[in-house]
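Recap for those who missed Tuesday's class. We walked through two folding examples back to back. For each one, the amino acid string is listed first and its predicted structure tokens come directly after. Nothing is annotated here on purpose, so try labeling regions yourself before you check the end of the notes.
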Amino acid sequence: MIVTGDPYDFPITGVLDPQRTALLVIDMQRDFCDPSGYMHSRGDDVGAARAIVPRILAVMEMARRAGMLVIYTREGHRANLTDLPDNKRLKTARAGAQIGAKGPLGRLLIRGEMGWDFIDEMQPTEDDVVIDKVGTGAFHATELHDVLRNRRIENVVLTGVTTGVCVSSTAREATDRGYSVLVLEDCCAEPDPVNHAMAIQLLKIEDGYLATISSAELFISALQSPPTDALSASRGVNP
């Protein structure tokens, strides 16, 4: 079981074992994906984020069938803003959507508000893991590494928003921690497609040092394939 990728197939370490692989669904929250959320308040189009929803849902369904751990991440801050760095507050204010300001779906990117929670189509199941974070990368100030280590996860597959910020930050953090990283290009989005394309190219820099890139179709196709002899043997299963 191998996922065809660019510039190399995934995982680079060998055969893909779903039990050692986690699918990350990054920040598919109303604030980033709803026309009334944080991104809209910034003046950004959420159409690209909405367009990837069906593909992520298909990837999640296949990942769960294969026995992969599904992890949701959710960015947000305390209501009293004690965990919000001043430089982040000022940058979001400069962009026209200061964190904590009142919006149509409640205070922007504040935990417990309607905009902070996941979109209706992507509500976690009881078997999924939810990682709440205050930064862009999913490993920063969270228990994600502990969750992955306890489940003996070696590979991570990234989907979600935005390609150039939270997805890219998480890919870099995961690579530094020794995980093999796959980014599904058509399951990630930026409001500006040019920025999306640039972010994907940077992830492939130095022959894929940060990540290799694939698609929902190729990922699903790989998981639909029968186990290889090597993986079957590793599980004590007759091929």
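Example two. Treat it independently of the first, because the proteins are unrelated.
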Amino acid sequence: MSLMVSISGVRGIIGKSLTPEIIVSYASAFAEFSKHQTIIIGRDGRISGKILTNILSSTLLANGCDVQAIGICPTPTILFALKNSDAHGGVAVTASHNPQQWNGMKFVSEKGMFLDKNESEQFWNIAKNNSFNYACWNEIGNFSYKEIYLQQHLDAILALPYMQKEIIKKRKIKVVLDCVNGAGGTIVPKLLEQLGCEIIPLHCDVSGIFAHIPEPVPENLSELRASVVANKADVGFAIDPDADRLAIIMENGEPFSEEFTVVACAELILSKQSQRNQNIVVNLSTTKAIEDITQKYNAKCVRTPVGEINVASKMRELNSICGGEGSGGIILPELHWGRDGSLGVALFLQLLSEFGGKVSELKNSLPQYAMKKTKIEIGKLQPKEIVETLTEKFSSSAEINLEDGIRITYPDSWIHVRASNTEPILRIIAESPNEQKTNELIHSVQKI
């Protein structure tokens, strides 16, 4: 298994593709990229995270950087810390939703955003040259703990103008929470307590030992779904290991759909705006329902290639009010420039409390589409050739977008085929008004 180096950072299998030598190389390159200034680091709680963070931290210090360590925390907390400090960069030690044997590093610029395409290429070139100037004994960096950011992050979410805690407290919502023993356990239970929720915790001990496959998709959430029904809970929340993604389970144990996390949050935010013509930014794989929501509020939906930084960069360019990805991530610039699972929990509970009904009733009030996601191991497949073939096949009958793989769009449906940024797979995602048509779209591409 090779090392995955992409706009989503560096990740690999510990002891195989991600070794101490690799960590030192990229940490030294990031020290140079950040001009040997102050770096904030945090990790998601994986068992391998401690040793990776120690190597990372020592390498940055040896390069003359000051290091501020947050410890185990959500990746969004690191982005929040960058926005609210004078640090010149940050590193989140995480492999996000990848399995237990994986770990990695996501690099954050002084803007409080992950590295964009140009910054990534500059950073990769530094790493490739592998020529670093380590500091003399009297010029090594200073190390400090900065545990204040977790509480500040929580306080900032609760202080958002969209939040009215008393409305949520009055509802007395019963929540089953699954943090997969990842970093979400450091913040989400506290958030729910402050919102007056009754909490039934599943895997919130931050041990880093994942109780199930960590990607928060329905097939990995059977325990959460059963627990919601058994406990007669109002809602279930699943947070991925580094707490930037949120999946929601309805009171009947069925998925709300991770695609609808950003839809529900956008509904709340746009409903509070007096100003029209706002921009909402999402990626090319996000549900068409977001377009219906933006039209409802006279806003505009803008799409980008998949990748959190692509969405965030476009949001910054357009001064967008909010955005996110259909993988369960919501981005709110007034908080920070990244997806945030804790933010999603808070905004969703606010929307649910104002709505007044059950989660399933809330879902039915939103635009309805049938989406299907599948994937194929890349193996010997050539993504570029696949895109060329599909373009030739569909360009006469559909709108074609080649910004990220190929997105084939019809008036009421679409299909997106692209190489993953984080795994050696091709992703195929399709959506239409009904399941049969969606399956037909998937099949038409798989056949080719």
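Answers for example two:
The chain has 15 helices and 20 strands.
The mean pLDDT is 94.
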